[in-house]
Amino acid sequence: MGEWVSIYWAAPIMAWLVAQLAKMALAVFNGSPRDQRPTIVTSGSMPSSHSAITVSLLVVVGVLDGISSAAFGITLVLTSIVIYDALNVRRAVGEQGIVLKQIAKDKAFYSAIGHKPIEVVAGSILGVAVASVMLQIL
Length: 138
Known about the structure:
This protein has helices at residues 7-29, 49-65, 70-103, 117-137. The chain is mainly alpha-helical. Helix 1 packs antiparallel against helix 2 (49-65). The radius of gyration is 17 Å and the shape is globular. The N and C termini lie close together (7 Å).
């Protein structure tokens, strides 16, 4: 690929794309109704694209800049925050959204559920895999 391609952004974008396509494929495979299937921009579900994005960047920065670099430290902290948020904050907000839907039966609104631990683990593994492949290609 050309010089314009930076693995620092190419790996996270590829990890996001693979995770989102995997969500869509899993929904079809599991027989989800068409109106409940994830789209390319849906959050939540298996695997966590947020985890895939941040972990792929963490791997790239760790390999190219070293694990003792400031960039790796910053990326590690941000990855930890994103994973914590996916597991805890977004999950709690999603559960509250379900209760709000039950209370306000006549109001239609979207509430995304955060991730289960297995979804975050799958997204993280996907992030490592995509980054590893991209490091070999670019």
